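Summary for the funding panel

The consortium committed to producing paired sequence-structure records for every protein in the target list. Below we show the first two records in order, beginning with the earlier of the two.
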Amino acid sequence: MKKSILLIALVFLAGATFAQFTVGPKVGFTMSKLKTNFEDVKEEARSGFQFGAFARFGKKIYIQPELMFVTKGGIIKADDATALETKVKLSTMQIPALVGFHLLNLKVVNLRVMGGPALSFVTDKEIKINNVSGTIGEKNLKDAIWSLQLGGGIDVLMFTLDVRYEWGLNNIYDPQGGTTYDMKSNLWNVSLGWKIL
């Protein structure tokens, strides 16, 4: 209970310190791709979605933490006659911690740039090989994804639109053997938010 009160007090203190506070829901679209060092394969992107909430503290320089449900993954195709296709879908809870800068800060329109780290906890893994679902390979995918997000945004009245690219920082593939395979999750995301405060 004391920790909860302290956390709430810190949030309000931060809001008072930065003298500007915004919070609201957001939804968006993702286009993700798995970058690998596998031989004789080609990687393709797959579409997904995201939704959650954001907060923003600050005027010229701001801090923007978020809590988002994000689908990631990709398509890996064998570059030979086997026509083997693996579709990977990862459902994640993502926590970005962004620092941004207002390039233009007017009453009606704001232009922004932002960047920072994000941590995604994988809540569900779905792998389809040639459109057949199975658990093969799921144990080889790690449960945490570290990434770096960079992008820009525009605010018009109470609406906020962000476009970001996300670089995967850690290898999310664990072959559980002596091989040195590498797989990283990269994606584009476009999100629309509503500033309710």
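The next record, for a separate protein in the list, is shown here:
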Amino acid sequence: MTNNQSNKYSMYAAADNVLKSHLASTASVPAFAEAYGRFDDLLNQIREKDKERMGKTAGKVAAKDEAEDAMVMATMIVSSALSAYAHVNGNVQLKETVHVAETPFRHARPSDQLNTAKLIYDLAKANAQDLVAFGVSATMLDDFKARIAAYESAVREVASGMAERTGAKTAVGDLFVQADQVLKDELDTMMQIFRVTDPEFYNDYRAARVIKDIGVRHNKAGQPVAPPAGSPN
């Protein structure tokens, strides 16, 4: 949720608690009870959809980072062997082509990382027999290829997770719109019924229907600023 949504959800929860504690009153008005049931269901959907949104990428990012480390390490080993091979054989062009600086490589875009790793693999494969003397076996090249493929797959999974997360975020926003409509157009309106018959319920509900800024803010001097009292919504 965004900060504003979190603040609004806190208000929703406060109103929901009041409604739950006055079920006898709400049950006396069938239309009110039905509207409250839909509101309560929307709150549950918001909570579950936001959990889903938060969980879309966490594990995938961790897997991507692990796959990236493995691919970077393999790339550095093979590129170093290729560089040494090129130097011994006086192949200046190959030496320049296979030079990979680890830090810039790690911080490059995934697409650039993959292009570089695939180029190093192709060059190593083309010189596979000669590279054995420089510590790169056929098994190592197979492992290198597998690490490139694993990282490429992990990058796609993260991209997919981000798309799903965006979809879940949109769904959360839509649920807030629906909850607002039920709250403002139905529950707030019908609450007038209890203004005389159950004034305690009415007053508790109105008190709960205030959005409070639960975030902590600071002034220019770095000192905490008390949140505003809130505003009805």
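Regarding this second record: The mean pLDDT is 87. Residues 3-57+170-232 form one domain.
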